């Protein structure tokens, strides 16, 4: 924000008339930067949606279900998939609305409100995705455990041998794997969306100073 810092220094040193002009210039700059950040949030969410859709298309879950003879899971997976697509598209629509609002707003207070709204939408979007990753991974492990022939030995040990010990170890390993997997996605979201939100929050703080 070098350009913004220069304007603020000039604002503090010069006359009252220049102060008014500088305030307008600072607002315009923050407005432009905020609009650009929200546009990138929209673009990244669209790219992410497209990537997941491509992965889903390339990896045919129906074939995997049939190969495992896990048809009873098919209806649940389809429901989760359709609901997930609908929810993600709803978030993307809200990102677009936030971008449209910020691009056309003309007041400092309204821009601040739009920034707060955008931050909440992104935070809800990230937590929703992490929740869905957790649920999907858990279902994947459950389906593999119940239907995968490679799990026959493990299932036999749980049912006929040291069941409690083997089951406890299995559950711990599954939970650790899920936590690591979800944690990697959390790190990805923190780097990508977190960086954009921090910049947006910095703009909000500067606008708050102007609005005083």
Blueprint (SSEs and pairs):
Elements lengths: L1 H12 L2 H43 L2 H8 L2 H34 L3 H40 L4 H9 L2 H49 L1
Helix pairs in contact: 1-2, 2-4, 2-5, 2-7, 4-5, 5-7, 6-7
Distance between the termini: 21 Å
Helix content: over 70%
Element-level helix/strand string: HHHHHHH
**Overall geometric form:** elongated
Transmembrane segments: 37-55, 75-96, 125-147, 167-189
Keywords: Membrane, Transmembrane, Transmembrane helix
What's the gist of this structure?
The chain crosses the membrane at residues 37-55, 75-96, 125-147, 167-189. Keywords: Membrane, Transmembrane, Transmembrane helix. The protein has 212 residues and is mostly helical.
Task: Outline the structure in words.
The chain has one domain. Helix content is 92%, strand content 0%. The longest helix has 49 residues, at 163-211. Helix 2 runs antiparallel to helix 7 (163-211). The radius of gyration is 25 Å and the shape is elongated. The relative contact order is 0.11. It has 212 residues and is mainly alpha-helical. The chain crosses the membrane at residues 37-55, 75-96, 125-147, 167-189. Keywords: Membrane, Transmembrane, Transmembrane helix.
